[in-house]
Amino acid sequence: MKDADIDATNILPAVTIRDPYVWMGSLCRHEYTAHWHHDPDRHCPNLIPDDVDYQQFRRFISRNESIPVHVKYAGFWKHHKSMAHFWNDWYREYWNITTMNRLIVRFEDLLFHPKAVTTAVCECAGGSLRFDGGFEYVLNSAKKGPNAHGPMEARTGFIKALSKYGKADHRLDGFLEADIEYAKQHLDPELMQFFSLSIHPS
Predict the structure, then answer these.
(1) Mean pLDDT of all residues in the chain?
(2) Is the N or the C terminus of the chain less surrounded, counting Cβ atoms within 10 Å?
């Protein structure tokens, strides 16, 4: 196994957790290996099918049930009841780790307060932030390679991210009322409360 000789106790895994509504919207733009029946140009995120969804995908979905999401990994698949459940299951796996320390940071905190959060993360790991060269902001997308977040023009750098996530206006782009209500009922309440992520009112 790769890296089997590395002492896991010397590692501090860190993950960023994103607002679920924004996360689902991002998934509509970059599906990665997730598969679900949807029309990205008309209704996405689509947790609950509307009439057009049902007519278009009626062989695969039920009218009054959530639209399942199937995600392909290396050698296996995972199945989720909806996009909201996919968010729950994805972050719950990190949350439930008890065999080693791990760090979960809100994406929005890192985006809007990068120096303070980076300093806190560094100190949490037992280190201190280096100031010999000053604090530098990475303006381009951190994702590298041809398959990372799609083509270069579709990736989000620091300035674009500030513009995109600095306003709540577009948080619910693509959602219909039924989707919002379903998310309100099914997003993991413990994760939402602990990370101060607001359930959007219907």
Answers:
(1) 85
(2) N
pLDDT of res. 73:
94
106 in Cβ contact with 16 (< 8 Å): yes
| Distance, CA of 47 to CA of 69 (rounded, Å) | 9
Separation of CA 56 from chain center: 27
Q: Compute CA distances 35 → 72, 140, 194, whole Å.
A: 8, 28, 29
- 12-26, 114-128, 159-173, range with greatest mean pLDDT: 12-26
Contact, 47 vs 65, CB < 8 A? no
What are the φ and ψ backbone dihedral angles of 31, each rounded to 5 degrees? -80, -20
Lookup result for tokens 């278009």:
56
Q: What DSSP string runs through 92-123?
A: HHHHT--SS--EEEEHHHHHHSHHHHHHHHHH
Question: Within 10 A of 27 (CB to CB), how many other CB atoms are there?
Answer: 20
**Tokens 């860190």, located at residue:** 14
Using pLDDT thresholds of 50, 70 and 90, give the confidence band for residue 202: very low
Q: Which residues of 108-127 are buried (b: 16+ CB within 10 A; e: fewer)?
A: bbebeeeeebebebeeeeee
**Comparing 41-45, 156-160, 183-187, which segment has the lowest mean pLDDT?**
156-160
